[in-house]
TrEMBL record:
Transmembrane segments: none
Organism annotation: Rhodovarius crocodyli
Annotated protein name in UniProt: Cell division ATP-binding protein FtsE
This protein's record includes keyword Cell inner membrane: no
Domain of life per record: Bacteria
UniProt keywords, alphabetically: Amino-acid transport, ATP-binding, Cell membrane, Membrane, Nucleotide-binding, Translocase, Transport
Annotated family: Belongs to the ABC transporter superfamily.
Residue ranges of every copy of the ABC transporter domain listed in the record: 9-246
Amino acid sequence: MQNSAPPAIVLEGLRKRYAAGGTLALDDVSISVQPGEIFGIVGRSGAGKSTLIRCVNLLERPDSGQVRVLGDDMLGLDDAGLNRARRGIGMVFQHFNLHSRRTVAENIAFPLEVAGVPAAERRSRVAEILPLVGLEARANAYPAQLSGGQKQRVGIARALASRPRVLLCDEATSALDPETTEEILALIRDLRARLDLTVLLITHEMGVVKAICDRVAVMEAGRVIEHGRVFDVFTRPAQPTTRRFVSEVIGHSVPAETIARLPAPEAGETRYLAHVLFAGPNSTRAVISQASREFGVDYNIVSGRIDEISGEPFGIMAVAAYGAPAKVTASLLWMQELGLTVTPIEEHA
Ligand SMILES: Nc1ncnc2c1ncn2[C@@H]1O[C@H](COP(=O)(O)OP(=O)(O)OP(=O)(O)O)[C@@H](O)[C@H]1O
């Protein structure tokens, strides 16, 4: 998705402090999103994600820094300019934010009504959007009659009403069950391709990033601590926080019964359980047997599987290493130097 076109969104050196003397919600944050890209921002609660995404359409104003969207210098626009620019930026919310007394069609038409679009044009635009989100049959339903997934489809349709080129998704699937989450993510991916959208999303779930993002930035305490192609960040996370996020998705804990069946370490030895993740042509099996030979460490392979991100495969193994503590450590460091990612497995998880 990288290309030479100017970025659709550029955030540069953003700082934001809500209260004098309070902590920085954004501390020198810079990201740039290419046209057509799905860019994810992931972080724990309080990391600054909402503040950041709300700075894109200036629902929140940064104290300093630059915000450029589709070529507009957002902070330099007057009210009329800002209204125009905002029509090019749709936003989808976690809790849908629908009007309960308006039908699906009326909810979708709402932003057009606010923008003064004539009724006939509103109707034809709504008729155009409903099939895009699979809601043709529910035009006259009220939000209370819809499932969570359908409500979010309305939220997405409303965000698309003014034909934006940029879609901001603020935890758009966090209120949905896993199956509905998958459906909505597939819909967003499909709409990106059909409507040529650029998507910036925030989430606390690495599963969402793995499912649809091209690139990701990881936030912590108001800063971007790591960013890159999703495949690279998943297979070679550099920061401990990123490693924890990644292990949520690809390093599920090994069942206690499995661990109980593993031999105990002998006197003077240690047993170290880890996930070993590899990408590209490296054969994990060869690495494991070489590590065994060269470091005198026994590797017991507990489980192994192949997964993929954006069509690129990678392998993940759970291993138990047995040997003298210093040798086990040295062998694992050697694997990391080869580019494999080693994450400890909690024995009590
Ligand atoms: N309106 C506000 N007034 C004061 N402080 C705020 C406000 N909004 C956010 N904050 C503070 O700014 C920091 C970043 O919050 P933000 O909501 O951007 O993080 P987040 O990563 O989106 O977390 P969450 O998922 O919980 O919303 C936090 O310390 C938060 O308490």
